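User: I'm putting together a small comparison set for a docking exercise, and I want a reference complex before I start. The sequence is below, and the ligand is NDP. Could you produce the 3D structure with the ligand included, as C-alpha cells?
Assistant: Of course. I'll restate your input first, then give the C-alpha cells for the complex.
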Amino acid sequence: MTKRVVLIGHPVAHSLSGAMHRAAFEALGIDAGYELWDRPPLALADAIAEIRGDEYLGANVTIPHKEKVVTLVDRATEDAHATGAVNTITREGKRLIGHNTDVPGFRAALDALVGKQKMPRQAVVLGAGGGARAVVYGLIAEGFQRVVVFNRHLHRAEGLARFFARSAAHMELRAMPWHESIIEAELAKSKVLVNATSVGTRSDESPIPAAVIPPGLVVLDLVYNPPLTRLLRDAEAAGSPGMNGELMLLHQGMAAFTLWTGQPAPVEAMRTALQAAREEAADAAAGES
Ligand code: NDP
C-alpha cells in the first residue's frame, strides 16, 4: 500500500515541502506520497481524524493551525508541549503524536547565520503565531537573556509571553505594542531580529520600515518564498547579515522525515529538490507579474 503524508494548512499552495519530501521518499525508495490539504479552521478536526487511518505515515501542519492542533493530538512531545504548537504528526496505531520540528529547524538556521561569532543574547521577534513560538522557545534554549516580542495584535504577544513565563523565568521575555518608535528603540539594543510574521509571503512588503534596521543586526526571516524578501533586501542595504527561512525549512523537514520513516533524511536530495522548487516558484511568480 502506498503510504500517505499530508500537509494541512490554509493556504498551502505556496509550500515547498511537497517537493522536498517527495524527493526524499524517492531517494530512499520509500513508496509514499506527500499531499497538500488546504483546510480552513472549521475543517481541521475532520482532517486530523482522517489521518488516523493505516495508510498515513503522518502529517505536517502549517499556517494557521499549529497551535490548535495541540488540542487534537493524543500526545504532545516535549518540544510541542513546551511551545504549544505542533508542526509534525506521527501515528502510533490509531494514536496521533504531535511534534515540533520547527524548534531544531530554527536553531540550525540561527547557528548557521551566527556562524563562528559568539551567540548573541538579545533578540527581537516579530509575530506571535505558531512559528514565533518555536523561535522564542529556541532563543530561550540558546541562552538568550532578553527577548522582546512584537505582534500586530498585542494580546497574542502577551499570551505568548505568559505561556513561556516559567521557561523564561531566568531571563527577560517581554511583549510590546507594535509601534515603529518602540521597535526602533528595541532593535538598537538587540543583536538578532527574527521575522516570524507572514508579511513578505504574498506581497513585496516588509513588516518594518527599512530605516529602523541598524547596521550589524543579524536578521533571520522565516519567510522562504520568495527567497529574497523586502526585509532581507533592506537588511542588506543597512549592512546587516540576513538569511531566509529555507535552511529552517530544510532542517524541520529532515527531522519530520526521520520521525515518519525512522530513517536518516537524505539531505542532499531534499536540499536540491527545495532549491529547484523555489526556482520554479520564482519563475512562476515572475511570469504572473
Ligand atoms: P500564524 O498564522 O500562526 O501567525 C502569523 C503571524 O503573522 C501572526 O503573528 C500575525 O499577527 C502575523 N501577521 C500576519 N499578517 C500580518 C500583517 N499584515 N502585519 C503584521 N503581522 C502580520 O503563522 P505561523 O506562525 O505558522 O507562520 C508565520 C510565518 O513564518 C509564515 O510566513 C510561515 O511560512 C513562516 N514559517 C516558516 C518556517 C520555516 O521553516 N522557514 C517555519 C514556521 C513558519 P496577528 O497575530 O496580529 O494576526
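Residues 267-288 form the longest helix (22 residues). The longest strand covers residues 3-9.
User: Thanks, that's exactly what I needed.
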